[in-house]
Design brief:
19% strand, alpha/beta, 30% helix, 20 strands, single chain
């Protein structure tokens, strides 16, 4: 939507905003028409929205002027904050910091405009969140998706809209980055994060075939759903050739599944998304192998959402935090109504409930997945089995991993509430900072802040989901502002002492005599 170019009778987005042919293949051939026909925006309306946003920011005196103390080490600058990841969470955190007068540098390994999953690995047609949620807008009406969408497509189109198309959402995030002038460095891969004892965190970063070091006072990990780990697959995946299976988070061309028998392991939202994508790509059949006897029907997390939960969760006692998150884990989130229908409308889609895979192997060129109901024969397996903490898969965290205090170190679950997934999550401080398992073993560890999914037990769902991402980013930004101010208090006090901008010049009045005063007795 950026830099529209005039065409006869309408405005089209500039060609560089379209995906390349290879990128179109990567997000699924079934989306080709959408990608080529969408985004027919009225440039004047979008320009007017951007002018209104500038006016709103001006009236609120945002962004605040920069107030942090410039630092150097060895002649090299030390950034106030480096954010690893420039998806929705990273952008929102950077914007919240900018509004408070703190300059953040964002690093993302993806090419510009393809940060996060929306235009790469995500397979849903629409977002699952209600369209009216304000997401990363940070309390500003002119920064909402609705404002952008109505500027592009009109108020009538908004009224008719059911759910937000995921590629519209990606285009909105591109606009968000541009209009707020957020400094993202694309094609930058973080290879190591090493806290130092001298109030620095040193990052080793690869870019354009070179490796360099970047130092920061604080580092924020906005690394998404896999956060501190990787996609998880069950042990039996090892018995299947790697060329014959993929995880739902993998980037792959689903057209390669045309004519194949596909088994999908899982029954959640992403399982429906990959199953539907495979069917639309021409798979001969899709068998969904679901461990549960029935699909969950009610989204308990949605029912629990409120400002009270958003702002009060982090202050709850440990037992209540654990109880809430364990209950949500046990209940699980149902796949969306539309996503499920997207699969079931295909006659060659088959749902198998109460059907866990017990073991797998190859037999006469086919994959045999043994279940309690018999052997499912397939040519390819798609795992929709979520993510887990897995530091072995994340060498960039090697200096942090041995020292992290986890919830398993902090809390002993009550009988009947044991939960390995929760036990593996990091025990975070009030500003999302990591804490040490053994105090003093890793000086500087608390300078790394976990603003991604693994923060959910410590802080609630405020680090990656659309409903409360602004509140989470503001909590992070305000906490970082406090830390940066307090650790440089001497410099701030000295600056206050040096301040010499007079309010009075001395010529505003003349001294009066005191002849009308009564004499002192």
């Amino acid at each position: 939507m950026v830099d529209s170019v005039k065409q006869p009778g309408r405005l089209r987005p500039a060609p560089e905003n379209f995906l390349s042919e290879e990128q179109i293949k990567a997000v699924g051939a079934g989306r080709r028409d959408f990608l080529r026909k969408s985004f027919l925006a009225a440039g004047a309306a979008l320009a007017a929205l951007e002018a209104r946003l500038r006016e709103d920011l001006s009236r609120l005196e945002l962004p605040a002027r920069r107030w942090t103390v410039p630092r150097q080490h060895g002649g090299q600058p030390v950034a106030d904050v480096v954010i690893v990841g420039a998806g929705m969470a990273g952008l929102t955190a950077a914007a919240a910091l900018k509004f408070l007068g703190i300059e953040a540098v964002l690093l993302d390994r993806a090419p510009a405009g393809f940060e996060g999953p929306w235009a790469t690995t995500a397979r849903m047609e629409t977002l699952r969140s209600p369209k009216q949620l304000t997401g990363p807008a940070l309390g500003m009406a002119s920064l909402t998706f609705r404002a952008w969408f109505e500027a592009c497509f009109g108020a009538a189109a908004w009224a008719e809209l059911d759910k937000i198309d995921r590629l519209h959402w990606m285009e909105y995030l591109r606009w968000y980055r541009r209009v707020l002038e957020l400094p993202v460095r694309n094609g930058h891969t973080v290879q190591a994060i090493e806290p130092q004892a001298d109030r620095r965190v040193v990052l080793r970063v690869a870019h354009a075939g070179k490796v360099f070091e970047l130092a920061a006072s604080r580092v924020v990990l906005a690394t998404g759903r896999d956060g501190l780990g990787s996609p998880w697959v069950p042990d039996f995946a090892r018995t299947i050739p790697r060329t014959r299976w993929a995880h739902s988070a993998d980037l792959m061309d689903y057209r390669t599944l045309r004519g194949q028998r596909v088994a999908v392991v899982g029954g959640g939202s992403s399982a429906m998304d990959v199953a539907a994508t495979a069917l639309e790509a021409g798979a001969a059949s899709v068998d969904l192998l679901v461990r549960r006897a029935d699909l969950p029907r009610i989204n308990k997390g949605k029912g629990a959402g409120s400002p009270g939960m958003t702002h009060g969760y982090q202050d709850l006692p440990d037992a209540w935090k654990w109880r809430i998150r364990h209950y949500l884990n046990r209940q699980q989130t149902p796949p969306p109504h539309g996503s499920t229908l997207r699969v079931s409308r295909h006659p060659n889609a088959r749902f198998h409930l109460g059907c866990p895979v017990l073991e797998a192997g190859e037999h006469q060129g086919a994959l045999h997945l043994r279940t309690p109901k018999g052997i499912c024969v397939a040519d390819f397996v798609l795992f929709s089995t979520g993510f887990r903490m897995n530091f072995d898969a994340r060498p960039e965290f090697a200096a942090l991993a041995p020292h992290l205090r986890l919830w398993g170190d902090r809390y002993q679950a009550a009988p009947g509430e044991a939960d390995d997934e929760l036990s593996e999550l990091p025990d975070l401080g009030p500003v999302f900072e990591f804490t040490e398992k053994s105090p003093g073993a890793c000086p500087g560890l608390s300078r790394v802040h976990c603003f991604c999914y693994p923060a959910v037990l410590s802080h609630g769902a405020v680090t990656g989901d659309i409903p409360a991402i602004s509140e989470g980013a503001q909590r992070l930004a305000q906490g970082l502002a406090s830390l940066l101010f307090r650790e440089n208090i001497e410099a701030h006090f000295a600056a206050m002492e040096r301040y010499a901008d007079p309010e009075l010049l001395g010529d505003e009045w003349q001294p009066s005599d005191s002849s009308h005063f009564l004499p002192l007795s």
